[in-house]
Amino acid sequence: MRPVADLLPLALAATPPVEQGEFRPADLVELTSLDPSIRLDIRYATTGNFLGTPLYSQARAFMQRPAAQAVVRVQHALAGEGYGLLVHDAYRPWYVTKIFWDATPADKHEFVADPAEGSRHNRGCAVDLTLYDLKTGRAVEMPSLYDEMSARAYPTYTGGTAEQRRLRDLLRRHMEAEGFTVYEFEWWHFDYRDWKSYAIQNVRFESIR
Ligand SMILES: [Zn+2]
Fold first, then answer.
1. Which end of the chain is more exposed for a tag (fewer CB within 10 A), N or C?
2. 207: CB partners within 8 A, 6+ apart
3. What is the set of domains in the chain, with CATH numbers?
């Protein structure tokens, strides 16, 4: 893997792909400003990610407003079952997707989004999240770790414990009820139904108000 420090200036200087079509204006809102009981564990703001170095200078989670409001409704519904949402990643500026791609060897590119296409995270319409237990405040155990590149990460994986699968399926059921679709290789990744309506964004967290 190439060092992120070398790739950052190149990624910041690069330009996102030009997209054709009509898009809604971006309206990125911070999830915790809509509901402070949504908890954050933003791995790309720490060394605890697959590149081993922070990519975000701030541990924050933004989504386009309708998607963010849908996440808040999921948070409320889950509270009745004793759980809350713990968010690992939401809106991701395009230059970060470019760093992921450039840092990853070509034979591992299937695991990262192609910056020529952009990612649904770049559109502010994807979220990576898990559950925390309202009583203990701790993240629950799922069938795999977050960002684990194995079959255990598939939402259809039949291994692990019954309780792990119950919690994974509980998260999925509540997210689907609010218009999200789970990614077939990652139980934690959900796309909001309107993702095609929003263009790729490259604004840094620091510049969102
Ligand atoms: Zn994701």
1. C
2. none
3. 4-16+27-207 (3.30.1380.10)
Q: Are 190 and 173 in contact (CB under 8 A)?
A: no
- Which residues does 68 contact at the CB level (< 8 Å), separation at least 6? 29, 30, 31, 34, 62
Give me ligand 1 centre to Cα 146, in Å.
10
Distance 126 CA to ligand 1 centre (A): 6
Q: What is the CA radius of gyration of the chain?
A: 17
State the distance from the centre of ligand 1 to the C-alpha of 21, rounded, in angstroms: 24
Determine the distance separating the centroid of ligand 1 and the alpha carbon of 128, expressed in angstroms.
5
Give the tokens for residue 151: 């079959």
Over residues 25-42, the pLDDT tens digits come to 999 999 999 999 999 999
DSSP assignment string, 133-192:
ETTT-PBPP-SS-TT--SGGGSTT---S-HHHHHHHHHHHHHHHHTTEEEETTEEEEEEE
Cα–Cα distance measured from residue 50 to residue 83, given in angstroms and rounded to the nearest whole number: 27
User: Model-level pTM greater than 0.85?
Assistant: yes
